[in-house]
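User: Before I run my own analysis I want an independent prediction to cross-check against. Here's the chain; please return only the structure tokens and, at the end, one sentence I can use as a sanity check.
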Amino acid sequence: MEQSTVCPWCQTEITWDEETGPENVCPYCENELGDYRTLNVEIERDDDAEDGSGGDGAKSARAEGAAIRSRISDDMDMDSFRPVNLRLIALEGKLEAILNEQLEVPECPSCREYMIEAGTQTVGAAGWEPAVPPAVKRAILPAPFRLVWYICPNCHHAHSRLAPDDRERLLGNLEGED
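Assistant: Structure tokens:
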């Protein structure tokens, strides 16, 4: 016997086999199949405070906003929301220009934001002992070589990759004849 469900996000009918059972995620749009996540905000209005005076109305509006924010944070589990970096939002245009100029734009493994290129590091013979696999019988990545460092502007995770020229040299060393 087959069961049918309609995805509330993409409106696609999903038919599940009895053996596999219903899933929690839509196979088409990959959204959760539960209820919509909604946020209910109750605004209490004090009609006596609205007497038309500008100064008192602004104070009561600020107080009302603070009461709403405190009620939301008290009622909801704020750990389920992704934190927002307001400085990153302000710098969004500048970051977009930097990312457009980069040769590669890796995604941060921690928070999935795009990473910006911070610079290159040359690894010399003094701090590097290359591995010599028996199958190749030579060093697959002899010094010196360069690493390109990327930094995530959101979570500040640092990540490095082998520079493009040294990637080609690595592949050549792996392909080389004995």
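Sanity check: Residues 148 and 161 are 5 Å apart (CA to CA).
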